[in-house]
Amino acid sequence: MEFVELSGKQAAQRAEALALAQDAPWGQGWPPNPQDRVLAAWDWSWLAGWHALAFDSEVFGLPLGQLSTLLHRAPWPEPKALDQGASLVKNLAAHAHQAGLSGLFARVAEKDFLAAQALEAAGAKLVDASVVWEAELTGQPKAPTPPEGFVVRPAMEADAPALIALAAGAFCDLEAYADRFALDPRLRHGCAELYGRWMANSLSGQQADMVLTLAAEEGPLGFITLKNAGDGEPGWVVLNAVAPDKRGLGLYNMLLAHGLTWLAGQGASAARVRTKFSQRAVIRAWSRLGARPLAGDFTFHLWLDEL
């Protein structure tokens, strides 16, 4: 199987690539970033692009990248299409490894079984299955008053150490959350560092417009980080957790209601969250708000230096 090598900018300008993007049943990541490196099948039945991830590489101490574009013309994993896809991914993996990367992350739509099986055939491992939910904010009930002894308020500078520690623990607990970074033995050592930095960046305003804290006399016991898109677009609940010893008391639902109230006050038309299929308590909470699932996806890790 022969391939065409392009930059992201070159791929975006090729008529064959545009035609593939228009025909792809579950295409993702089009157009590619100009700096992406793109590999396409000679007959334009498949196309994939990747780029390095500076932040992830720094946190985990490994050169990592993202497979950001993955397009194919065939809809289902028939033998010929699957062989073509596996060949493309293997060749792209070889290119990325030669460029110095140790691993690639890839995410595909929940119906894209051809791409998922091509990734698996190339040696990738499934590490996450998630769904995006959306709740309309018009008509949502007023956020309830916190139980006695608790308060919900914007995070303060003094809360930072406790919130960073809470985030680092909440999302790296294999039994409670099973985050993909905690599940992968090669990345587990950096999971707490990743979420700690994520929380720190949220508190600084880089990755969140508001961080609400659930606090008691002993300090922060929960949080919800919020991103407002503006102009009436849906806002996002990005990170949301309650301390392990405070779960099962209804505090998550109460904290979520306060977060949605803040988003509505900022003019958001709806709120979205991306959560794992396995997080049934979160899904139940959003379902009670009338939320509907918008899309699902599967995430894979491909270790290039193990192929």
Topology (elements, then pairings):
Layout: E1 3-7, H1 8-13, H2 15-23, E2 37-41, E3 46-52, H3 54-60, E4 64-72, H4 79-98, E5 103-109, H5 113-121, E6 125-136, E7 151-154, H6 160-170, H7 180-183, H8 191-203, E8 210-216, E9 219-227, E10 235-242, H9 251-265, E11 270-276, H10 280-288, E12 292-303
Parallel strand pairs: 4-5, 10-11
Antiparallel strand pairs: 1-2, 2-3, 3-4, 5-12, 6-11, 6-12, 7-8, 8-9, 9-10
Helix pairs in contact: 4-5, 6-8
What does this structure look like?
The longest helix is centred in the first third of the chain and has 20 residues, at 79-98. This protein folds into two domains: 3-123, 3-Layer(aba) Sandwich (Aminopeptidase), CATH 3.40.630; 134-294, Aminopeptidase, CATH 3.40.630.30. A twelve-stranded mixed β-sheet has the order 1-2-3-4-5-12-6-11-10-9-8-7, with helices on both faces. Helix 4 packs across helix 5 and helix 6 (160-170) packs across helix 8 (191-203). The chain has ten helices and twelve strands. The chain is 34% helix and 30% strand. It is α+β, with helices and mostly antiparallel strands and 307 residues long.
Task: Give me a quick take on this structure.
The chain is α+β, with helices and mostly antiparallel strands.
How far the N terminus sits from the C terminus, by CA atoms, comes to: 19 Å
Task: Return the average pLDDT rounded to an integer.
Answer: 95
Number of helices: 10
Order of helices and strands: EHHEEHEHEHEEHHHEEEHEHE
Which class do the helix and strand fractions yield? Answer: alpha+beta
Query: What is the name of the CATH class of the largest domain?
Result: Alpha Beta
